[in-house]
Amino acid sequence: MTKTISEKILSNHSGTDAHAGDIVIANLDYMMGQDGTSGVAIDSFNKMGAKKVFDSSKISIVIDHSSPSPNIGVSTIHKKIREFAKQTGVNLYDIGCGVCHQLLPEQGHVVPGDLVIGADSHTCTYGAINVFSTGIGSTDLAAAWISGKLWFKVPETLKLIYTNKLPKGVFSKDLILYTIGKLGAGGATYLALEIEGEVINEMSIDARMTISNMAIECGAKAGLMRADQKTLDWVGKHSTRKPNPIEPDKDAVYKDVVEFDLKQIEPQVAKPHTVDNVSPISEVAGTPIQMGLIGTCTNGRLEDLRVAAQILKGKKVHKDCRLIVAPASKTIFLDAIKEGIIETFIDANVAVVTPGCGPCVGTHNGVPANGENVISTANRNFKGRMGNPEAFIYLGSPATVAASVLNGKITDPRKYL
Amino acid sequence: MKLKGKALKFAKQNDDINTDYIISGRYKFKIQDPVELAKHVMEDLEPDFYKRVSKGDFIVAGENFGCGSSREQAPMAIKYAGISAVLAKSFARIFYRNCFNLGLPAIEVNTDQFQDGDEIEVDLDNGIIKNLSKKIDIKIPALPKTMQTLLSDGGLVEHFKKHGGFKLD
Fold first, then answer.
1. Does A264 reside within a domain?
2. Confidence grade of residue A26 (pLDDT, cut at 50, 70, 90)
3. Which of residues 129 through 188 in chain A touch B, CB cutoff 8 A?
4. A362 touches chain B (CB under 8 A)
5. Rounded to a whole number, what is the distance in Å from the CA of B11 to chain A's nearest CA?
6. pLDDT tier at B71 (50, 70, 90 boundaries)?
7. A337 reaches B (C-beta below 8 A)
8. CATH code of the domain in which A170 resides
9. What average pLDDT does the segment B39-52 reach?
10. Which of A197, A228, A259 is the last residue of a domain?
């Protein structure tokens, strides 16, 4: 029988002929936890009576969700994580290194064909480089640390094909917001996505990661793309591991195939309080904004910062508004300094903060006040997400956020590009 | 396994109840004691929700319950609040896994037939949910074998303690 990318990767890692609906126990290539989930994982690990991990070279813990620590409770968790890393020999990315979903591919831990888990829902990001990667909880992570394995239900696959071209000023973030608006928050629950087409072929790896990152926002288990030459070149630059690119069979069986021609779309904005509450920007333009955020595992990469700096260069953030920028890793931070991007931000009165997740997940570094509107490049705008249930979060591309904070209101970025 | 309690529904929302509603990020990073965490369960959707939970009650919701983050603190807060199972039309998959890993049943059933406060009995062994208030019996399909094993062992921690690894066949 023919197979999808998911069926092939899960077959390869379980030693079975796996098809959608099967439950397999599979060997993992890499596993990740962050500081919001690893504390509970360490508790489960200890309760399971384990003393050591199966292979410390396949494990990273990233302190990124509250980094550096904003309070004593978090400091206690961080201390526990540091001690665990020392005791077991697993790799630790401590404060300032960056956001987990940037670090794993950037530091070469994951390559095409891998099976990867992370105790964070946006682990699906590495699907952009042909990795079957998916989010799991803390106790699953503990079980994986001990055994090197995890059980998976092999998902059916929904294929998304993007034909034609995106118009100028419309980015991969707009594409995925549009898609989630169409599919709905539960539109791909239990499914893997295979994402392809001319639009994807044209995109950089950074831009592709924005799309795979948000697969979970329509409930998907993975957001897989093929590995083309661009992928292999990128992976070759970041990793010494040998990739094993996985193609779907030509006549693989899909749950459904949906084709999008986005030649005519405008920049897209998700409105409070759900990611699938999406409008073209013309419907929300003019909405007053008090705060912006550019960063996160969705849009904190170099090209994201670059487009925002292009819009902000020589100008100031609107006087009734503020902008926080958090580069997704220290490598990106340094590259942005070298390119003069950070200087542009600081000149524009932007608050540039340490690489990390803080503002997106509401732990620190920019909690909005009651009644305030925020526009963010993050992947989630749930009520309370940024630390205040009385605030309102809009999601858009880095260009949309930059244009909006310049004017203190939601603004179509295309006139600046 | 037989569970009994009343149905607890949310007046403001039925579908897509996300993990930020279940337990907000502003608590999950700060509070490590699950009993304390449970006092904030569902707070942003219904303040003081935990006060109306009696031990054994069920959370009853619509589609895509538990969407959003992978935080295991979400099912943990539900469990420590005294909820014995979550009944929904469908679940987000990470939340679903996390429930069984903690020994908390997550049961897919058409919940339109339940109203807030209905007395419910869940009989997992025989696959029947009884709405005692409305005198309706609903047959539910058997849980996947993996889930049954995790539940009968009392969650993934206990499963690993018992078998020293995965033994799900």
1. no
2. very high
3. 135-140, 142-143, 146-147, 149-151, 153, 185-186
4. yes
5. 16
6. very high
7. no
8. 3.30.499.10
9. 96
10. A259
Q: Which residues of B touch A151 (CB under 8 A)?
A: 146, 166, 168
Helix (H) and strand (E) counts in chain B = 7, 7
A274 and A158, same structural domain?
no
Domains in chain B (CATH in brackets) are 2-141 (3.20.19.10)
**Is there a domain that residue A181 lies in?**
yes
Q: Which residues pair with A324 in a beta bridge?
A: A293, A351
Q: Which of A217, A237, A259 is the last residue of a domain?
A: A259
Q: Which residue of B has its CA nearest to A147?
A: B165
Which residues, listed in sequence order, are joined to residue A163 by a DSSP beta bridge? A261
- How many domains is chain A built from? 2
Does residue B29 have a pLDDT over 80? no
- On the question of a cis peptide bond just before residue B144, with omega within 30 degrees of 0, the verdict is no
Residues A217 and A308 both lie in one domain: no
Q: Give the model's pLDDT for residue B25.
A: 83
Spell out which residues of chain A touch residue B92, defining contact as CB-CB under 8 Å. 186, 189, 219
Put simply, the chain A residues between 49 and 108 with a CB less than 8 A from any chain B CB are: 49-50, 65-66, 71, 73-74, 76-77
Same domain assignment for residues A169 and A145: yes
The CA distance from A76 to B130, in Å, is: 45
Please report where in the chains the tokens 């849009």 appear, as a residue: A299
CA distance linking residue A354 with residue A375, whole number of Å: 19
Residues 6+ apart with CB under 8 A from B117: B6, B7, B133
Q: Does residue A394 sit in the same domain as residue A369?
A: yes
| Domain match, A65 and A211 both | yes
Calculated CA dihedral for residues B69, B70, B75, B77, nearest 10 degrees: -70
Residues A278 and A346 in one domain: yes
- Residue A174 domain boundaries: 5-259
pLDDT score of B30 more than 80:
no
ipTM (interface pTM): 0.94
Say what percent of chain B tops pLDDT 90: 91
